[in-house]
Amino acid sequence: MVLIYSEPLGKWKCVFKECKAACCSSKREVTAGDIRRIANSTGLNPEEFADLNDDKGLFRLKSINNSCFFLREDSSCKIHKLGVKPLFCRMFPFKFDGIIYADEIVLKVKAIKECPGFGKGSNKDEKFEASIEELGNQFVKEIKDFLKEKKLGSKEFL
């Protein structure tokens, strides 16, 4: 389940060159699925780009100079065109704001209103928020799958 708690988004457009990809901060949250997709597409070993110490199915990308491991000097993303950006990167301008581990895992996200792209571009409607919810549900599913495999003692989750 995904809990989106913020005002309606309104207009938004990614202006990563303007803000020098401020959203691509260090320690971005990733799932085991994100790590597998990135490793398979780039040929990198997961240890090269991710901290593999999990916190209940959540991992973190490594950073270079307090920025994402995959951020280039021109503020573009090395893996964007490969189509394997982590789920949370694809959910932007919504950010991870916590996770509740209960009978059902609840992912909390909210819009980052400080993003310089707010008020620019086209209006984001229910379809856009539905896509955010879909990505969030995939994130939750990947955490559940990881926890299930871990409980079964599988070491093949990455």
Radius of gyration: 16 Å
Shape: globular
Q: Which stretches are low in confidence, meaning pLDDT under 50 for 5 or more residues running? A: none
Helix content: 25-40%
From the helix content, strand content and strand pairing, which structural class follows?
alpha+beta
The spatial strand order of the largest sheet comes to: 1-9-8
Report the end-to-end length measured between terminal Cα atoms: 24 Å
What fraction of the residues are assigned to beta strands by DSSP? Answer: 25-35%
Mean pLDDT: 86
Count of alpha/pi helices: 5
Q: What letter string, H or E per element, gives the SSE order?
A: EEHEHHEEEEHEEEH
Oligomeric status: single chain
Number of strands: 10
Sheet of most strands: 3 strands, mixed
How many domain regions? 1
Features:
single chain, alpha+beta, 10 strands, 31% helix
What does this structure look like?
A hairpin with a 2-residue loop joins strand 6 and strand 7. The protein has helices at residues 16-19, 32-42, 46-49, 87-90, 126-151, and strands at residues 2-4, 10-12, 29-30, 50-55, 58-61, 63-64, 67-68, 94-101, 105-111, 118-124. The protein has one domain (2-151). Helix content is 31%, strand content 28%. It contains five helices and ten strands; from the N terminus they run ββαβααββββαβββα. The model has no long low-confidence stretch (mean pLDDT 86). The protein is globular and about 50 Å long. The protein has a three-stranded mixed sheet. The protein is of the alpha+beta class.
